[in-house]
């Protein structure tokens, strides 16, 4: 899975939308109250470090089992430390890729979330560019 495009982050204006007071059940339905109590600013909710945050568009299917699909937008924060089990953007041979970072026996690997793709051991020339914090999908 590779990165199709990279966009810088701009949070100069708030992106406030209504926030319903009632949560939505993922199991059995609950009565629909329809109460709105506040608004939610998507910029402040999704972007903690604007100067080091970027949007990237995905191409490929090596991360489908993590819910990351072709054309999804990823929010990537370059200021966060890349820790075990985080989904990261890495650079391999001057190309961007998105994978899960795993540390096994003092070695670092980039793990796909699709059984059809092999893991990649992080060696010279490979580095972590940023940590994925959110996925934006359209249905």
UniProtKB/TrEMBL annotation:
Gene3D superfamilies: Umud Fragment, subunit A (2.10.109.10). GO terms for molecular function: DNA binding; hydrolase activity. It comes from Rickettsia bellii str. RML An4. Coiled coil: none annotated. One of its GO terms (biological process) is DNA repair. This is Peptidase S24-like family protein. Belongs to the peptidase S24 family. Keywords: Autocatalytic cleavage, DNA damage, DNA repair, Hydrolase, SOS response. Residues 18-132 form the Peptidase S24/S26A/S26B/S26C domain. InterPro entries: LexA-like, LexA/Signal_pep-like_sf, LexA_repressor, Peptidase_S24_LexA, Peptidase_S24_S26A/B/C.
């Amino acid at each position: 899975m590779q990165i199709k495009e990279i966009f810088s982050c701009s949070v100069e204006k708030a992106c406030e939308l209504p926030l319903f007071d009632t949560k939505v059940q993922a199991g059995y339905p609950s009565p629909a109250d329809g109460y709105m109590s506040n608004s939610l600013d998507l910029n402040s909710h999704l972007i903690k470090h604007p100067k080091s945050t970027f949007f990237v568009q995905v191409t490929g299917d090596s991360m489908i089992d993590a819910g990351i699909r072709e054309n999804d937008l990823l929010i990537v924060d370059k200021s966060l430390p890349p820790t075990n089990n985080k989904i990261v953007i890495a650079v391999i041979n001057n190309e961007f890729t998105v994978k899960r970072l795993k540390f096994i026996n003092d070695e670092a690997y980039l793990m796909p979330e699709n059984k059809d793709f092999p893991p990649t051991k992080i060696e010279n020339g490979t580095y972590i560019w940023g940590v994925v914090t959110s996925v934006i999908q359209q249905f």
